[in-house]
Design brief:
2 copies of one chain form a homodimer.
Chain A: H1 5-12, H2 16-23, H3 31-44, H4 50-57, E1 62-68, H5 69-73, H6 78-90, E2 96-102, H7 114-117, E3 123-127, H8 132-139, E4 145-148, E5 158-162, H9 164-177, E6 183-188, H10 193-208, E7 218-221, H11 227-240, E8 246-249, H12 252-264, E9 274-276, E10 293-295, H13 298-315, E11 322-325, E12 328-330
Parallel strand pairs in A: 1-2, 1-3, 3-4, 4-5, 5-11, 6-7, 6-8, 8-9
Antiparallel strand pairs in A: 10-12
Helix pairs in contact in A: 1-2, 1-3, 2-3, 6-13, 9-10, 11-12
The structure holds a DNA duplex (16 and 16 nucleotides).
Chain lengths: ~350, ~350
DNA sequence: CTGAAAGCGCTAACAT
DNA sequence: ATGTTAGCGCTTTCAG
């Protein structure tokens, strides 16, 4: 039988209240008694019962982590790493993470994650793009929510977001400073806020460098972001017959697909075309040549999100705070300098 | 304020005990009262409190899922899929899955997952290879345990295992029936039980087909299984200068590394060398040619493991049961027929 | 077949 | 500064 607070109290010769107060550091307990209590706890190998604690405190000690099936099952563990980040952080706090996936295309009649229905979480983390229907449905539960790598700008949620604009601006600047003037931009899923931000970063950078913007260099597909759409986008760009020496893809998957197309058509990378992606996924390194990219600190994002949740939960900072995590440009062999600007 | 069992009792005009019995289907409650109760529950939107329930039942309603950092972070979501399988199954039962990672090289002084220390799980699922030190340490807690894709044969745990031997036998047979007589076997981490089983499957198949076994065709590296070790193993095989028309690698990662080496040395696949891996990971399809492999039903394995846990937990089937999940040979372009046997 | 009541382990007033 | 005590919401004997 596991020892209870009573056992501790008995052994330490104090009341259960004292033990409780002592453990939770709440009241001003004498140092001496605290030491006595701690010794008893140690001797007994005592650990507070979660359910008893939760019962009286009316909390669950759980945080729900929600993402879509598609995002969880993807080959590249982008969201998996974010999840792990929240898990790492949760270890330092009295919380557990409960994971649930929802259908990628969540519909009105779909059921919400069980931990919502059962009221087993004190707050939820939502990672990646989810449908508006889902968001609306879940919001009726009034749970503290932190979104990760996604948000609808018109809604006011706390969120941890990637510096999409800054990232692509960096990439664009790097290309420009290496002599590239005709830089194509390949994307898909253009209704995705992140994609719009990345596109925006591209435009801003051109502007700042007084480089004319050309619609001809933009390929925006209506499909899902993937290696295939990257391939298709490159094909489309190629068909247009415009001049370009560099390509920015809205993420690594598309960049890799694009590289594939260029190689198939006999174009040399980076001799003829420089290319930069976004995300920094592991297979970038295995490309030939290794793909340059914008690196996103995934583990950190998860940790940030969890910390934000704790703030909301404990310090009652309910003011829809947004954290923008910085990104880093990683230049590898897929980028070549054409002519240095002074 | 969430409704409690009291509210339900009041509304249904019965006692709380009746509500409880009714919900849990335990006693023979009249159909009528049961209906009354159910109506009240529905009207109130009542849901039993987990913590209250757990407190009295002295269970936690949680199952811990443990795997190593390395396995969780791997590019290929092998264990991630298994995890998702357990999660899928847990949804149908009154349990939540708590995930924790441990250091790949767990040492004596490393701390066990928090949910173990805090007694917040009723049982644990352990996926993939973990150190003996870890296993020994965790076993002192006497928690019901189900191992997945790994076990020490001398210990007696319930486990869900892959049919490693059968899988490689199938692959070997397929190669033989396509005219291959000199089949090399590439592996690493030979102390891993799964690898030994795969190796065994290879030998058995040769024997059954009366094909002489040659040490020269076996490359067993002392390193970790990876693309790199696959590359190295192929190199070593090549150095030996022995004749072979086919290669079985102990998993897909190694197979891909081996293909890389063969291609670099100008060997044609499958014209000169046929190759088969093991695992069925997504990138197999993106190889050139697409890699043949043994497919492992990862989601199923997770579900099986969870079900086994439920059996142990609820039906008290404590007899170290093992489930061997079947695998499937998937032949793709990396295998060529040399000459058909009649 | 149903109700009364004890108690699971803990926290937080309220006393002392 | 510490002890007493009343619950938190639920399950489960034990009576009736």
């Amino acid at each position: 039988m596991r020892p209870t607070i009573k056992d501790v109290a008995r052994l330490a010769n104090v009341s259960t209240a004292t033990v409780s107060l002592s453990i939770n550091g709440h009241a001003r307990i004498t140092k001496e008694t605290k030491i006595k209590v701690e010794k008893a706890i140690k001797d007994l190998g005592y650990f507070p019962s979660r359910s008893a604690r939760d019962l009286v405190s009316r909390k669950t000690g759980n945080i729900g982590f929600i993402l879509t099936d598609g995002h969880f099952l993807k080959t590249e563990p982008f969201y998996t790493q974010i999840f792990l980040g929240t898990e790492f952080e949760a270890r330092k706090h009295p919380y557990y993470i409960l994971l649930a996936t929802i259908p990628t295309n969540f519909k009105e009649e779909d059921e919400l994650p069980r931990f919502i229905l059962e009221n087993s979480v004190d707050g939820i983390l939502i990672a990646g793009r989810v449908s508006k229907i889902f968001l609306k449905k879940i919001m009726t539960y009034g749970l503290p929510t932190v979104m990760i790598d996604f948000h609808y700008s018109e809604k006011n949620h706390s969120a941890v977001l990637i510096d999409n604009m800054g990232g692509v601006s960096k990439a664009t600047n790097a290309l420009i400073s290496r002599g590239h003037n005709n830089i194509a931009f390949l994307c898909a899923e253009h209704e995705h806020p992140s994609i719009q931000e990345r596109y925006h970063g591209y435009k801003i950078a051109l502007e700042k460098n007084s480089i004319p913007f050309s619609e001809q260099l933009i390929v925006s597909l209506d499909t899902i972001i993937s290696t295939e759409s990257g391939y298709d986008a490159a094909k489309e760009l190629n068909k247009r017959g415009v001049d370009f020496s560099a390509v920015i893809a809205c993420n690594d998957a598309m960049a890799i697909g694009a590289m594939q197309f260029f190689k198939e058509t006999g174009k040399q990378i980076p001799e003829e075309i420089s290319i930069i992606g976004f995300d920094d996924i592991e297979i970038d390194l295995y490309q030939d040549p290794p793909l340059s990219t914008i690196s996103v600190p995934k583990i950190d994002m998860g940790q940030d999100a969890f910390q934000l949740m704790i703030e909301i939960l404990e310090k009652r900072i309910n003011n829809h705070k947004k954290i923008i995590v910085p990104v880093e440009l990683i230049l590898r062999d897929s980028v070549k300098t054409i002519s240095k600007l002074s």
